[in-house]
Amino acid sequence: RYGEDLFVGYKHFHRRGIKPQFSFGHGLSYTSFSYSDLKLSEATVSNGEFNLTATVTITNTGRLTGSEVVQLYVSMPATSDVTHPPLLLRAFRKAKDLQPGQSAKVSLTLDKYAVSFWEERIGRWVVEKGVYGVRVGSSCDELPLVGSFVLKKGFEWNGS
């Protein structure tokens, strides 16, 4: 039986503690990469908009030139009264053609869509106040960089 809900794909595997052979975001490469220096800008909320930039350093630690997709996942506040998946892919960017030993800074921008969920009971998008988790890495189960940010006040919105 197939049933669509919040916990489909990688969200289902994370919730149930299942480690698939090839996790969501897994890519094959002829080289290897390391992640470091996660920096989160100040989370800003103004006029119904949210903005935050995450910056990471990615380094080609292998012997061949390669590219890597940097993925950022968000966890909603633990204080929420609503059930949320444990990790939500909210941003990604490709670091292209890094030479062996070369590093690159990758910036990932989050907007209100990254911290919102549809609340059926009121028919609006909701951004909750609280502590949001951030995890960055190469796939949904390889997330070596961990951070968080706080929203002191939530808000609701409709449309775009």
UniProtKB/TrEMBL annotation:
<dbReference type="Pfam" id="PF14310">
    <property type="entry name" value="Fn3-like"/>
</dbReference>
<dbReference type="GO" id="GO:0008422">
    <property type="term" value="F:beta-glucosidase activity"/>
</dbReference>
<dbReference type="InterPro" id="IPR036881">
    <property type="entry name" value="Glyco_hydro_3_C_sf"/>
</dbReference>
<dbReference type="InterPro" id="IPR050288">
    <property type="entry name" value="Cellulose_deg_GH3"/>
</dbReference>
<keyword id="KW-0326">Glycosidase</keyword>
<dbReference type="InterPro" id="IPR026891">
    <property type="entry name" value="Fn3-like"/>
</dbReference>
<dbReference type="InterPro" id="IPR013783">
    <property type="entry name" value="Ig-like_fold"/>
</dbReference>
<comment type="similarity">
    <text>Belongs to the glycosyl hydrolase 3 family.</text>
</comment>
<feature type="domain" description="Fibronectin type III-like">
    <location>
        <begin position="68"/>
        <end position="140"/>
    </location>
</feature>
<protein>
    <recommendedName>
        <fullName>beta-glucosidase</fullName>
        <ecNumber>3.2.1.21</ecNumber>
    </recommendedName>
</protein>
<keyword id="KW-0378">Hydrolase</keyword>
<dbReference type="GO" id="GO:0009251">
    <property type="term" value="P:glucan catabolic process"/>
</dbReference>
